[in-house]
Amino acid sequence: GESVGLHLPTLSVQEGDNSIINCAYSNSASDYFIWYKQESGKGPQFIIDIRSNMDKRQGQRVTVLLNKTVKHLSLQIAATQPGDSAVYFCAEGGAAGNKLTFGGGTRVLVKP
Amino acid sequence: DAEITQSPRHKITETGRQVTLACHQTWNHNNMFWYRQDLGHGLRLIHYSYGVQDTNKGEVSDGYSVSRSNTEDLPLTLESAASSQTSVYFCASSVTGGTEAFFGQGTRLTVV
Fold it and tell me: How confident is the model over B12-30, as pLDDT tens digits?
């Protein structure tokens, strides 16, 4: 598998604390917003998505919030674990299954 | 199990050579995508396809081409490799109407 050592914003989090990762998106016409996780040496992996007509969606230990007024997306991870250490990308798409535009990514480092 | 595989995983080539990166998925997904990942740029879309015989240019398509002769494969060809095309390349697929794109493990291409 491959990944690159991107010069990314980094969020350092104590194990067990909550993490909040933020993303500003560009296209007000986007219909879907998605969070991906990329571990070292692997391809991105889907975490959770939210449609533009929603403002909050919850998954297992994760919550995505969408603020269309300011074109802002956030991912909250509850009780962060060492396995959550990775690079997180937000992505936006015009319709389900269609091409995505990715943000620059945020590196999360979980401290024991 | 269904999967998406990329080959080769690593490739070194010389400037000016033609190079083809393979992507094969066994999910029977209609949608397939090629992205490149560089330092400071995250993932950028090169080409994509929504079905057999359908191909579309993405954000950074210059110097690349794809063909879709069957559902399973979307090979990416660099017509005349340039040093600026040194990158990590990811292939992805998704089902029509679905938001989850499945990514391959990536191919690290170095053009010398």
Answer: 999 999 999 999 999 999 9
Q: How far apart are the first and last CA of chain A?
A: 26
B42, B92, B105: residue with CB nearest A1: B105
Distance from the Cα of A33 to chain B's closest Cα (Å) equals 9
Residue B45: other Cβ atoms inside 10 A: 20
Q: Give B74→chain A minimum CA distance, Å.
A: 15
Please tell me the distance from the alpha carbon of residue B8 to that of residue A107, in angstroms, as a whole number. Answer: 27
Decide if B88 and A49 are in contact by the 8 Å CB cutoff.
no
Which tens digits make up the pLDDT trace of A95-112? 767 889 998 899 999 999
Across the interface, which of A3, A34, A96 has its CB nearest the CB of B97?
A: A96
Q: How far is B38 from chain A (nearest CA, A)?
A: 7
Q: How many residues does chain B have?
A: 112
Tokens 């490149």, residue? B36
Q: For chain A, how many residues are written?
A: 112
CATH number of A4-94+104-111: 2.60.40.10
The beta strand positions in A7-61, using DSSP E, are: 10-14, 19-24, 32-38, 45-51, 56-58
